[in-house]
Amino acid sequence: MARLVRFKAKQPIRIGNPPVSICACGLSKTYPLCSGAHIMIQDEDDDKVYVYNNKGERLSEALSVSLKGGGKVSASDVYSPK
After folding, report:
1. Is 3 part of a structural domain of the chain?
2. Number of domains composing the chain
3. Three-state SS across the chain?
4. CA–CA gap between residue 2 and residue 14 (Å, rounded)
5. Which of 6, 10, 26, 57 has the fewest C-beta atoms under 10 angstroms from its C-beta?
């Protein structure tokens, strides 16, 4: 089942000793480990929804997403994992 999940973090989470970087942006090619992909999202606006393809390329941005059955979801309404 496909899901729309909003990742708000623009930096990895560092844990452990020695430190390991865990992806928090959702675009890592080595998920769950950070691949540095967060570098390309630094210009993103928190009030917009950005759509990426499976290659991690930004396809579009929007203030809301239209749903197939009707209605819209705004960027602030999209679930964001903690």
Report:
1. no
2. 1
3. CCCCCCCCCCCCEEECCCCEEECCCCCCCCCCECCCHHHHHCCCCCCCEEEECCCCCEEEEECEEECCCCCEEEHHHCCCCC
4. 28
5. 57
How many CA atoms does the CB half-sphere of 68 hold within 13 Å? 0
Tokens 């390991």 sit at which residue? Answer: 20
54 in any annotated domain: yes
* Residue 8 within any structural domain of the chain: no
The Cα–Cα gap between 41 and 48 comes to: 12
Give the global pTM.
0.67
- Find where tokens 């959702």 sit: 26
Phi, psi of 65 (to 5 degrees): -120, 130
The model's pLDDT over 32-82, given as tens digits with 9 standing for 90+, comes to 999 999 999 999 887 788 888 878 888 888 777 777 777 777 666 654 544
